[in-house]
């Protein structure tokens, strides 16, 4: 029989990332029922839950998150809101943009932008890494996507894209402000799409922004300008969100200096292990929502059509049945890890080609690797005393200081 808990809205705010896993541990189950924001919900955790939640098209994203978060992270008509053949066709658009050549091109753009930013940092003396890498990643994403953006535009869009991420879990005035700012971002993205369409496919040279601009749905119709603008933001915003992983990588290098020496040598295998452990260990998004598309049975519980469910991303990444000593940061575990789409789930589980798993994981890992290598190789940079603790009740989380760097001139 499924355990039913009383309304847990306040408990979620108090506990944050550990809300689902702590109850699963206490109850000895991977599934329990409760109420959040006056809405019944089933919470799930673990590899079996990941396979059930992401597999077979059982759960869709309609009404899967509060409107306050949906308007910031998805908005109407976006790929995440679609189901069936419409979702598969739109998702393929994004998958086609994630080729090895495209990932490499994005990485080279990041290296160039990092170098330019590094030269500016030394004039500041002290910088907050999270603020700086958000601007670096915004410039990188625009360059890669084929969107023209000067420094003023990059700074503004970096703030707006960051608000979409930072305030997705908030309610009230701060969320309203972020949604108001998003309108400005959507207007800018719509102008980019319109400019590309006016110039025609030949002038766009197959850039990611152009691929979106000239994409057609399953009926052969082009996307509306509004939906194309939303999908352009869905291309740019996740790249900016990688800034959090980069800051966590900096924290890991500071708190585990032995890995500084290892990654400085530039061994790709070690860099990959380090990046994957950053993704597993540190808090990114806490959970993901879905609604049952039909009546389902799992672990003795019946999901009625439309039933809201939350799958625990953070708790599954810290599940002691899947990971030895999960609360320790240990990149070496990935030297012997066999890739499993249902155990390492910071950006979702299952097959990205057919489900709702993020299609940009290869880009994420590559960018973390590049940032880690750059940070480990830096000279003229030191880390002053600061509060690097991470508040797991803040969703999404960050070190309290944002990671402050004291910057001098790099040695030749």
Automatic annotation (TrEMBL):
Assigned keywords, A-Z: Heme, Iron, Metal-binding, Monooxygenase, Oxidoreductase, Plasmid
Cofactor: heme
Gene3D superfamilies: Cytochrome P450
GO MF assignments: heme binding; iron ion binding; monooxygenase activity; oxidoreductase activity, acting on paired donors, with incorporation or reduction of molecular oxygen
UniProt signal peptide: none
Entry-linked InterPro entries: Cyt_P450, Cyt_P450_sf
Gene Ontology process terms (BP): sterol metabolic process
A Pfam family recorded for this sequence: p450
Family statement: Belongs to the cytochrome P450 family.
Name of the featured protein: Putative fatty acid beta hydroxylase
